[in-house]
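User: Structure with zinc ion, tokens only please.
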Amino acid sequence: MLKIADICHALEEFAPKSLAAPWDNPGLLLGDAGAECASVMVALDLTDSVLRQAEQAGCGLIITHHPFIFAAQKQVLAGRYEGDMILALAQKKMAAVACHTNWDNALGGINYTLAEALGLQNITPICTPQEDEILLLCGEFPSALSAADLTKTVCAALGLPVLRAAGLDDNKTYRKLAVCGGAGMDFWPKAAAAGCDALLSADPKHHEGFQAAHADFALLDGTHFATEVIGIRRLGRILQQKLPDLTVHFADEQDAWQFRDKEGRKY
Ligand SMILES: [Zn+2]
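Assistant:
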């Protein structure tokens, strides 16, 4: 039977830890590398719901994009997020692996998945992990899109009910788009300098909106969840192809951030 170490080895082949940013914490976070493991759960984040789903499916390993242990832990206490997760995993004898910026930056990883989901062509890096710790990609739509069509394209690709944007102009068309899954809005000056018309990323700051609009550049907030969840699911599919004897489950996950309309209803 496969061991946790075999699964880590397979992940290393297409999401090598050498690609991760220096501040990151990817790889095996908790568990016994020598333990046997027949099935894994793939998720964007480790949550109570994901833990429950993994236990019900009999998984020995949970693979997430975001490392649930990030800062150094001086105590492991119940009632805190990290403590509860560590205690629950240990009690259930489950391991946890994170494929974070190593998967952001890999060929075919989070950022390539995002670019391809949008139907972009001629996808090329604007800056590479070696230069700037992060892979920022750009690509072109087959034809220039109006602001409305760009909005529809992004919403359809990411399954979003609405799109928050800054600097998006109804009198302009958009052909060249930069993408960065997760919190990458601060890279917009690099995208603008590379000749892009807009950047799709998430977690924007207030001042980034008016500064980009001032530069006649559009920022599209695709949400952290939606810009990354498609990429971590692709990681699970690749792992399944590499290890046919492994059963790969995909967590049923929702963004913690929910849209509600002015009547209080969820979108
Ligand atoms: Zn992220």
